[in-house]
Amino acid sequence: REREQLRLERMICVNQLAAGIAHEIRNPLTSIKGFIQLMARRGDRPVSLEHLEIIISEIGRIDNLISEFQMLSRPLKEPLVEKINVYKLVNDVLLLMEGQFRNKNIVFPPQLPLAGGCVLGDADQLKQVFINLVKNALEAVPIGGNVIIVASCQQDMIAVTIENDGDGIAPEIIEKLGTPFFTTKANGTGLGLSVCYSIVQNHGGKIMISSLPGRRTAFTVLLPSPADEGVSMNK
Ligand code: ADP
Ligand code: MG
Asked: For residues 222 and 208, is the Cβ–Cβ distance under 8 A?
């Protein structure tokens, strides 16, 4: 009976995903179609650059959606298992995103010390987790606010917290986070956190959210760190 229950839950999940993706792709497609029809009706008058730009940006939205959707299916594969220095990985992600901090005039957080602990896992997948979380923090932080990254190693766990000033998240919204396609943003896909949850879960870890409404939000990624660190593997 348990197996039947699981099968049913998966079906519902697939249904929701399919409905979500259909809806998300139809929106930009409708506007692309509308603008192309408009351009066709204008006959031999010059094509408006503005309309072309809208079309390009709507195609970009579909493109983004599909990339995130692909990411969501990727963690279903067995993650690679290699020894990863999480602090270094987070530093790499931050450097990758430096331009996005600068664009919003957000102080670039200091690099984490390189002494941090290691986890066994898939570097590309874990990078994606931190990219998504930092991206969300940058989208939520007001101009001139702070994004802070804190990491710590305790016993057999590594914790990395990404915290940002901002409006925080209302409790009734926190409950919905991680549901595919749940977004409060006009141009959001609502897939970023789903990808994060699924990857972190696959690594035996978890994500914790703490929010002070009106003040700040913090996402903490907890990952198990092998006890025999450095003994059996030396990569
Ligand atoms: P998207 O960013 O496309 O909306 P996500 O899955 O990444 O999708 O995030 C889902 C929702 O979670 C966001 O729309 C937002 O409401 C909320 N959220 C995520 N991160 C933060 C944050 N740092 N501060 C406030 N709200 C957040
Ligand atoms: Mg996001």
From this structure: yes
**CA separation for the pair 226, 118 (Å, rounded):** 8
The answer to whether the CB of 129 is under 6 A from ligand 1 is no
Let me know: does 102 contact 108? Beta carbons within 8 Å. Answer: yes
Q: CA–CA separation, 165 vs 217, rounded Å?
A: 7
Q: Which helix (H) or strand (E) holds 71?
A: helix 49-73
Which residues lie at CB < 5 A from ion ligand 2?
136, 192
Ligand 2 center–CA 39 separation, angstroms = 33
**pTM (2 d.p.):** 0.78
Nearest CA to ligand 1 atom 21: 136
Give the pLDDT confidence of 173-229 residue by residue, as tens digits.
999 998 888 999 987 888 889 889 988 998 999 999 999 999 999 999 999 998 654
What is the CB neighbour count within 10 angstroms for residue 92?
Answer: 15
The β-bridge relationship of strands 118-121 and 82-85 is: antiparallel
Q: DSSP labels for 160-180?
A: EEEEEESS---HHHHTTTTST
